Structure formats: C-alpha cells, structure tokens
C-alpha cells in the first residue's frame, strides 16, 4: 500500500467540488494528468475506488461519499494551521475570493477594489459576482455576500445594509403607453422578471409581493440583464434603486410601491483566525458604511445609521 499523501486528499476534494477533472485541475493550478495520478494514488493508498469515471464527469462512489467529511475536516485543520503563520507586520499576502450577487458585486464592490489594492498591494483578489449562493464549507469563496442570512452551518453572518427596490420602465416605453398612476394599472403591462427555477434566493420573488396577478412575460436569470431589457423597452421591472438610478433612460413608477431587502456578509468559522479574511471583511463593512444610506435607498427615503455606524434598518414595515 502506498504512503498516504495530503496533496492527494486535496486533489480528491477539488474533483468532488468541480465534478470534472479538467476544471478541478485548473482551479488548483496543476495539469489534469498530474491530478489524475494523484486521484489514482489516493485510491491505491486507501484500497478503494473513490470515483466512477464517466464521459460526463467523475461520479462519487459510496466509499468516496464516506471520505468527504474526513477530508474536509483535515482541510479545515490545515487552513487553521496555515492561518497562524500570518504576520500582520508583513502585510496581507496570498489570495482571497469574494462571492457576491451580481448587482452588489458590480455596482458596489468592484469600484472599491482599487482602494483595497492600495492598502494591500500584495493581496490577490478574486471577485465572483454571480446570481447564486456560495458554499464556504466547499471553499467556493472565502467571504460571501448573500441576500439571505444562513440558517445552518458553521458560519458567521452580519448584516451589511438594507436596500430599496422600485418599479422602473424606460422613458421610450412610457411614451408609447398610457400613464401609470395607480397600482391596479400595472397588470396591463408586460413585465421582466426572473426565471422561476433559477431563483437562487426566495428574496428574489419580487412580483408576487407587489401583486399575485403579475407574471413576467420575459424571464431572465440575472438582475443586470433584466435592467438592460427594461432599458430596451421590454416592459416593467423591479430593480434595486442603487442600480437603476444610474440609468438615465429609466423612470421610477409609483414610488410609494417599494420593496426592501438586505445584504449579509458571511464568513466560515474556520476562517476566524485568517488575517486576510478578517481584514477584507472589515474593509467591506467599512466601505458600505462610508457610502451612507443614500446610496442604498432613494435620497428622499434615506434613514440614519445606528449610533455604531452599523446596520441600516428601514423604519417602515417590510413589504
């Protein structure tokens, strides 16, 4: 039996999370033939087959499923040991991956990255701004921003901010249509909304909150593309105010109809001793507070932060 090698276990977890050998190899920075040898070496050292090799990818065997908890426990231990080597005097080094919703990552965080780079020039930052949930336990990200507070897992969550959404339409669209002065008139118009089975959070179900009768005629998987469709005259849409107010071709309709949602900053318990994770998480919270509530809400509805400069809460009833 071959000697057990921790690198082989890392290779195993990479394939588990990617599902395909080439994708996993690219993520951990080795060629796919080396990764294949590591998986074969691990299977030989354990005396079991961990994957069924299929044309569509690598499928876990029963023995592979059983190995995952132990492999992840060893990975967590390795992360904690490595974190103790961080030296604050040397500045932040290494890489950090931040997973965020596409609107928050694009319109808020991306413009802040130059300041982060100025403060920590040796830090490598990966921003993944996608419409999805990120699994911190599977190392899909070091820090995640979500619209939903996690209810399980070894995760720490703090509220970053509340934000407002409203109903928008393009000026050109409105010139071709009768004026919209009442909520009852909304049902007569086409709507742009989410692909229902691709809603990655229940918080994205905006239209039913306005009226159970509203059904999108055009369904799009992410909010940035939805805004582009609304700008192009496809119909009405519910958009975050911090996005839509930048687009001069859009008009907000019925400002009394407003929705509120929140963003949460999430880190894993295993990252509590990792300097770069703590520093970047604090940087994100600092920049959210620095923008002020007027960034996230309509100016006329902006509310003061609490005395600690922390969470910004709407005094209005949700919904």
Automatic annotation (TrEMBL):
Residues 4-61 form the HTH lysR-type domain. The chain crosses the membrane at residues 223-244. The keyword Transcription regulation applies. The keyword ATP-binding does not apply. InterPro entries: LysR-type_TF_proteobact-type (IPR058163), LysR_HTH_N (IPR000847), LysR_subst-bd (IPR005119), WH-like_DNA-bd_sf (IPR036388), WH_DNA-bd_sf (IPR036390). It holds the Pfam family LysR_substrate. It comes from the Bacteria. Belongs to the LysR transcriptional regulatory family. This is LysR family transcriptional regulator. It comes from Herbaspirillum hiltneri N3.
């Amino acid at each position: 039996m071959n000697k057990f090698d921790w690198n082989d276990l890392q290779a195993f977890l990479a394939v588990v999370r990617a599902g395909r050998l080439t994708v996993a190899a690219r993520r951990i920075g080795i060629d796919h033939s080396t990764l294949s040898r590591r998986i074969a070496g691990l299977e030989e050292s354990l005396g079991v087959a961990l994957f069924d090799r299929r044309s569509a990818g690598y499928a876990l065997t029963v023995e592979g499923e059983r190995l995952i908890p132990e492999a992840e426990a060893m990975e967590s231990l390795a992360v904690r040991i490595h974190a103790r080597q961080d030296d604050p005097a040397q500045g932040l080094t290494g890489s950090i991956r931040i997973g965020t919703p596409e609107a928050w990552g694009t319109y808020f965080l991306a413009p802040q990255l130059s300041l982060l780079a100025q403060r920590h020039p040796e830090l490598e930052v990966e921003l993944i701004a996608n419409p999805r949930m990120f699994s911190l336990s599977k190392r899909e990200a070091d820090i995640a921003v979500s619209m939903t507070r996690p209810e399980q897992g070894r995760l720490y969550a703090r509220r970053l901010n509340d934000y407002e959404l409203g109903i928008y339409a393009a000026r050109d669209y409105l010139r071709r249509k009768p004026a919209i002065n009442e909520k009852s008139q909304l049902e007569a118009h086409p709507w742009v909304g989410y692909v229902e089975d691709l809603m990655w959070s229940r918080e994205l179900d905006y239209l039913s909150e306005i009226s159970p009768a509203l059904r999108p005629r055009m369904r799009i998987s992410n909010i940035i593309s939805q805004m582009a469709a609304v700008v192009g005259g496809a119909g009405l849409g519910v958009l975050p105010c911090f996005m839509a107010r930048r687009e001069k071709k859009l008009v907000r309709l019925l400002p009394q109809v407003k929705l509120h949602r929140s963003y949460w900053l999430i880190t894993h318990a295993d990252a509590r001793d990792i300097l770069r994770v703590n520093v970047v998480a604090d940087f994100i919270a600092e920049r959210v507070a620095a923008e002020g509530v007027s960034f996230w809400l309509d100016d006329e509805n902006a509310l003061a932060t609490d005395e600690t400069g922390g969470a910004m809460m709407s005094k209005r009833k949700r919904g």
